[in-house]
Automatic annotation (TrEMBL):
This is GNAT family N-acetyltransferase. InterPro entries: Acyl_CoA_acyltransferase, GNAT_dom, N-acetyltransferase. Pfam families: Acetyltransf_3. Residues 15-183 form the N-acetyltransferase domain. Gene3D superfamilies: 3.40.630.30. Coiled coil: none annotated.
Length: 186
C-alpha cells in the first residue's frame, strides 16, 4: 500500500503539485499567516517563518519514517510560488484508507483549483498508493471545504456530532465525513 516510492509530480491547468520541500517554508508562511485562510485548521495563523519551517519538519517530513508521502506543495504555474498544500494523512493500513487535507491561499479561492487538486490526489491514492478508500472531513462551519468535497464527487457518509474539540474555538464541533471508493472511480 504505502511505500517510499517517489510521488508523481502532477500538472493541472493552473497549478503543479510536487512534493513539499524545506525551501517552501517562506511561501508556506505566506499561505499560513492569514487568519481567514487558517480559520478552520488546527494550526495557524503563523506568526513567524520559523513556525512554518517547524511544521514542515515535524508534521510533513516525519511521515517518511512511517513510509508515508510527505505531502504536496501546490504551485501557481505562472509565478512558481507555493499557494497551498494538499496531503494524505491518517493512513489506516488495516482498512486500506487514508484522508486528504488541504489549504489554499485565499487569493486563489473559488477558482476550481482545490477541486482539481482533490481530484488529482484521489487518483494518486488509487493508482499510485493502491488505497481502496479516501476520506475527507470538515467541521460543520467550513462550508467552502464542503463545496470542494462534493464537487470532487465524494459521497457524504455521516456527521460525527460534537466529536472534534477545536483548539482555536475551545469548543466541540460536528464533523462531516465523506468518502470515495476506488471501485466508484473505475
Amino acid at each position: 500500500m504505502i511505500t517510499n516510492r517517489k510521488m508523481p509530480t502532477i500538472e493541472l491547468d493552473r497549478v503543479i503539485l510536487r512534493t513539499l520541500l524545506k525551501k517552501d517554508a517562506n511561501d508556506f508562511f505566506e499561505v499560513g499567516k492569514d487568519p481567514i485562510t487558517t480559520e478552520f485548521l488546527t494550526w495557524g495563523p503563523f506568526k513567524t517563518i520559523k513556525e512554518a519551517k517547524t511544521m514542515i519538519k515535524f508534521t510533513y517530513f516525519r511521515r517518511m519514517a512511517r513510509q508515508e508521502p510527505i505531502g504536496y506543495a501546490i504551485l501557481d504555474k505562472e509565478t512558481h510560488q507555493m499557494i497551498g498544500t494538499i496531503e494524505f494523512h491518517t493512513f489506516n493500513r488495516k482498512n486500506n484508507t487514508c484522508e486528504i487535507g488541504y489549504v489554499l491561499k485565499r487569493a486563489y479561492w473559488n477558482q476550481g483549483i482545490m477541486t482539481a487538486c482533490v481530484d488529482a490526489m484521489t487518483k494518486v491514492a488509487f493508482e499510485h498508493l493502491d488505497i481502496d478508500c479516501v476520506i475527507i472531513k470538515h467541521i460543520k462551519e467550513n462550508m467552502a471545504s464542503q463545496r470542494v468535497i462534493l464537487k470532487a464527487g465524494y459521497q457524504f457518509i455521516e456527521i460525527n456530532k460534537q466529536s472534534f474539540f477545536h483548539p482555536k474555538t475551545h469548543r466541540f464541533h460536528d464533523v462531516y465525513v465523506y468518502e470515495k471508493w476506488r471501485k466508484q472511480s473505475l
